Each structure stands twice: as structure tokens, then as C-alpha cells.
Amino acid sequence: MTGSETSPSFRLAYVPGVTPTKWVRIWNERLPDIPLTLVQVPAADAFEVLRSGGADAGFVRLPVDREDLAAIPLYTETTVVVIPKDHLVAAVDEVSAEDLADEILLHPLDDTLDWERPPGLPAFERPATTADAIELVAAGVGLLVVPQSLARLHHRKDLTYRPVSDTPASRVALSWPQEATTDLVEDFIGIVRGRTVNSSRGRRPAAAAEQSPKAKRAESGGARRKPAAGASAGKAGGRSAGAGRRGTGGPQGGKSARSGRSGKPRRRS
Fold this sequence. Notes:
InterPro entries: LysR_subst-bd. Belongs to the LysR transcriptional regulatory family. This protein is α/β, with parallel strands linked by helices and 269 residues long. Helix content is 28%, strand content 20%. The chain has 8 helices and 11 strands. It has helices at residues 21-30, 46-51, 130-138, 148-153, 183-193, 203-208, 213-220, 229-247; strands at 10-14, 36-40, 57-61, 69-76, 79-84, 95-96, 104-106, 121-122, 143-147, 159-165, 171-177. It is elongated. It starts with 9 loop residues before the first strand and ends in a 22-residue tail after the last helix. The model is unreliable at 204-220 and 230-263 (pLDDT under 50).
């Protein structure tokens, strides 16, 4: 593992639709001396940016090639259809892919949904980007099915969106090169996973675990602990009490076990 000493800053890539604000804020609180630089990249370019060292880690959309990249799935987005506000679909709370069968659906080249076959009727040509497709929806050319975060990112006053069932969903993950799992990457993983500063998975507790055996014994109160005086006395007292009972005739405390009365047994006449 490469030490954090070789990384004076941390570069975090993120694809459109992902909002890393919460995690960046926690980073700045915990590691104020290490600047975090955000790198926005197209979804199709995110993995190459990580492989080439353009970022230390990144928020990407699954699937991820696990041969050289590690990934922690974070959440699954709702899939929505973007429509003009006066479209018939705007009158309902949710639609299915089958409900869109007679609609022209735009399928941009940077689409992030893993379709076997997009629903609806295909447009004359595929828009280059999601942003271009949004413009075409506003122009009344067709509709667009995207992850909800992208619908929010490209929000327009004349457009709205509704959830769509029976369609692929986009999953967001934190990814980084497996061979470049630095201490700073581990720190950011801890933040994303919600670990506290003193978490046992953090670097600080791990450093403490590398102390010398002498230091460990000093912190734990010594390698050997002498029994407390009270405990020794209690054990000794217990043995003495047991011995006293055995010497006085067992459970009846001085009475004969056979006759149940104290004194010597009677002689037969």
C-alpha cells in the first residue's frame, strides 16, 4: 500500500448526477490539511480517468471491471421518464415501460441504463448527449428515460418527470484502482461507509496496534495481573469454611449422619 505521504492532495472524480457534497464536507472536517479536488467526468470516461491516475477514487455508475478496479456499491437510483409538463403522462404518478410503447423515446449515446431493448419507438437518430436529448424533449420530438439524478441535473421549467417501472436502474458506486489503495483512499472509504474518526477500521487505531509489546503492556496495565487481595481472601475463606464443615460431621453441622442427633451413638443392651 502506498503511504499518504506521497499524496499531498486527494482527487475525487464523479459522474453527472452524483452529488458528492456531503462526503466532501466530512473530508474537510476530518482532514483539513489535505485538499480534496473534485473532477467531473462523463460516465463513459470515468474508468479510464481512474486507471490513468487522473483521480484517486471516483463515484461511477456500475458495472465496474473488477479485474483492476475495486468498487463499493452505494445506492440504486429511481428511473424516470422526462416529459413536457403538458404531456398526458404528467397526469399520473407512475408509468410502466409498456405504457410508453407508442411514444418516441430518445436514446442518447451517453445513456447510462443497461437496456436489452429500449422501450417505445426509436427516434430518427440518437442524440450525442443526455443534455441534447433534454433539448429535444422540450422541443416535442420525443421522451427520455434516465436516472432521476440526471433529470434533476437537467431540470427545465417546461419539463417534468415521472417514475417508470419495469426498466433498468442505475447503480452508483465508489471505485478506485485496486493497486492504488492508498491511505487517503482508505480514509475516504471510511467516510463513505459512515465510519467514525475512532473506528477500528481507521488508520489511527491501526497505527496504535503497531506499538511495541512493552507499550501495549503499559497501556493494558501489565502483561500479568496479580489477583486482588479480596478475591484471594474469599477463595481461602471458602476453603476454610468447607474444611470446617467436613470436620464437624458434614451437612448437619455436628449431628451424626445416621442418628440425626448430637453426641455418641447408644450402646446396645
